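explain this.
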Amino acid sequence: MIHLDSLGSSTVHDRHQLGWAIRGVLNVEWGRHFNDTLDKEAKPFTHRTFKLHYPIVPKQDNNYDCGVFLLRNAFNLVQRVDTKVLMTDINNRLQTYIDNNELFHYDKADINRMRAELFTMYGCLTNVYQHHRVMIQPASLDPLELESDSEEEDEVVIVSSYPDRPDTASNEDSD
């Protein structure tokens, strides 16, 4: 188990409590799905069998870039998917696998670039979604009024708190 914490020592996350909680969920699920032994109290995920590693990763200097750092670290790990993790990597707490790897040497400029790219990508996905769906602009945000008398089950309802914005208006006239 790897905890890549971009907040560092200023984090409110207690990595040991986080590890304990994840092991607890895994033990419950293992008991529900895979434990066919006589020992129904067995816990295969312990601090000895499923260690928590917390390698050094670049730190954010604000409280709002957590998601961008998470995506960057996930991207970096995916890039390493074909690289074997050896026992020497585990024994040196992933220092050679993560800490010393050039993928994990990024800075604020890389994060700013990635945030801009994500913004552009989400904008493109929003346009694709809006132009390929039937859109109905509800008169209010009351969930009871969102129910439709229409027989079509594939109808998509977009709920927006910006009724005056052109990008959330119905596109029935655009075709």
Notes: The chain has a mean pLDDT of 80. The longest helix spans residues 108-131.
